[in-house]
Amino acid sequence: MIGIIFAMKEELDEFLKVLSSVEKEKVYDLVFYKSKLKDKDLILVESGIGKVNAARTTQVLIDKYDVDYIFNVGVAGGIVDSVNICDIVLGEKLVQHDFDLTAFNREKGDIPNVGKYIDSDSKLISICEKVKTKSKVFKGVIASGDIFCSEGWMSKKIATKFNALCVEMEGASIAQVCSLCKKPFLVIRSISDSPNKGNNKITYDEFLEDSSREVALYLEKIIGELD
User: Fold this and answer.
1) CA gap 2, 89 in Å, rounded
2) Which residue in the list 10, 11, 110, 170 is annotated as catalytic?
């Protein structure tokens, strides 16, 4: 079974459009959507925004459904000039940019017993790289933190410090739970805004639906390639 976590309803809704039938099951306050796609069993869930919501949902998903793989898909803010609106980023590594134990002589983002960067599953990345999509696909570091980065200076700081391509609010916490539970995972994000390019109001609302659609269609193709 393949687990897929979305932070927001808009992201979930775009993927539901590619499914023909769905069954719902509620666990606590979380609604899980069971379906099939290309003979693969899927379980989808909207976690809510932020690292705590995402981590909690990931653990419930693992405990309740014992999934084989976990994908986290959705939108993110681009923080380097090479990544543009509706481009896709494969999170080869995940880092929590707001985790700070520097007072104890640790690097920013370094988590005890976890490390600074968490590696995604190499097999899943290899499969993704073979899938054709009209979007430009990048592979690299995705940075997560409980803050919406709307200022260019903040985005540039995160990009420089962590060599990150984009920033969002859930992926690295999902990665941490999956890593601790020994579950293969991959975070995939489509770029919805880019504060480094002068969008201080940003383009998040304008491109949320388009970016969510791009990553949903990409994931549909990826699922068809899974064992």
Assistant:
1) 20
2) 11
Q: How many C-beta atoms surround the C-beta of residue 130 within 10 A?
A: 9
Residue 193 appears among annotated catalytic residues = yes
**What pLDDT sits at residue 148?**
84
Q: What is the CATH number of domain 2-225?
A: 3.40.50.1580
Q: Are 70 and 183 in contact (CB under 8 A)?
A: yes
Is residue 129 flagged as an active site residue? no
Q: What is the pLDDT of residue 206?
A: 63
Catalytic residue among 10, 87, 168, 193: 193
List the chain domain ranges.
2-225
> 58 falls in which pLDDT band (50, 70, 90)?
very high
143 forms beta bridges with 95, 167
CA 137/CA 84 separation, integer angstroms: 10
Name the residue among 171, 178, 37 with its Cα closest to residue 121.
178
**Across residues 153-172, what is the average pLDDT?**
94
- Indicate the pLDDT class of residue 86, thresholds 50, 70 and 90: confident
